[in-house]
Each structure stands twice: as structure tokens, then as C-alpha cells.
Amino acid sequence: MARTFAYCRVSTVEQAADNQVREITAAGFAVEPQRVVKETVSGSVAAMEREGFSRLVDRLEEGDVLIVTKLDRLGRNAMDVRSTIERLDAHGVRVHCLALGGTDLTSSAGKMTMAVIAAVAEFERDLLVERTQAGLARAKAEGKALGRPSALTRAQQETVRAQRAAGASLGALAKEYGVSRAAIQRVEKRG
């Protein structure tokens, strides 16, 4: 007989997963308390790298149903969400997402929904890259300095280059100016 599990993830300890549990119950899913997995972990962590989710997957059997309130509970990365759902589907576990009308994401309609979501996510990612590159090109054309500001003033940089040319060590200069050795090396390279 199919068992129903709920995965409720929040990102910070200030948040509570109880709202997700109530939402699942209100949608008509009866999930026994021992089958509710609550976890506090960033959505940027891959699903299978999360301790609670990984243990949940180990408990799931063919025919079981996993409920999530929103797709982002499984992850923020469309590729991770997709591979997680495909892995569960391969084990005969159905995945329902309330925010998508309770759609079983392992069904034909669910797979189509996932394909559309993945395509939109890729499109948005490409647009973001294009906008970022255009903004950087515009800033560069306007003569704006890109990157974070140097830890050393121009005068300090000139002094550092002179001291390095005179044989001062990276470590001594880094200590003197309160910066990393890498910062001193960057000053040398720009010289």
C-alpha cells in the first residue's frame, strides 16, 4: 500500500516548516507525523546532499508519494530539481507539488510541466548573463573601473612596486600594509 511522505524545507532557523505541513493537510493529504521530514537548509544545497532529504529518499519505496508545497522546496536549481524527480520516478515514487495544482511531477503532464519550467529557467539565466555582459561593456566604455576597489591607494601601490623592485618580500609588505600576499602580487602585476 502506498505511503505518503511530506518534505518541508526552510532556509533559516527563524522560519518554521509548520505552515508547509498545514498547507499539505489542507490540500487533503493525510501524512502521518513520522513521515513528515522537516529540514532547515538552503535551497542552493543539492537535494541529495541534504541530510534530511537523503535519509527520506532511503525510506521511500516503490508506490510511495512525496508531497512538497512548492518546487523550490526541492531546490533552486532546475537541473537539480529535475534530476531529483527523475531519480525518485526511477524508484517508482510519485512526487506531487501543491503549487502546481498538486500535479504528479512523474506523470506525463508533470514531466511536460518540468520541461517547461526548465526551459523558462534556462531562458531567464541566459537573459541575466546577457544583461550582465551588456552592463559591464557599457561601464567599461564609460571608463568606469570594474571589480572591487583596491585595498591600497595609488600612492601605496607605487611604493609597494618600488619596495618589491628593491627586494622587499611579499610577506613583509603584506604585513606592513595589512593586506594579503595576493594583494601585493596583484599590485605587481598591474604595474
Could you explain the architecture of this structure?
The protein has two domains: 4-111, 3-Layer(aba) Sandwich (Rossmann fold), CATH 3.40.50.1390; 154-190. 50% of the residues lie in helices and 12% in strands. It has helices at 18-26, 51-59, 78-90, 108-141, 154-165, 170-177, 181-190, and strands at 4-10, 36-40, 65-68, 94-97, 103-104. Strands 2-1-3-4-5 form a five-stranded mixed sheet, with helices on both faces. Helix 6 packs across helix 7. The mean pLDDT is 90.
Write the layout of secondary structure elements.
Elements: E1 4-10, H1 18-26, E2 36-40, H2 51-59, E3 65-68, H3 78-90, E4 94-97, E5 103-104, H4 108-141, H5 154-165, H6 170-177, H7 181-190
Parallel strand pairs: 1-2, 1-3, 3-4
Antiparallel strand pairs: 4-5
Which descriptors apply to this entry?
five-stranded mixed sheet, alpha/beta, single chain, 7 helices, 191 residues, 2 domains, elongated, Rossmann fold
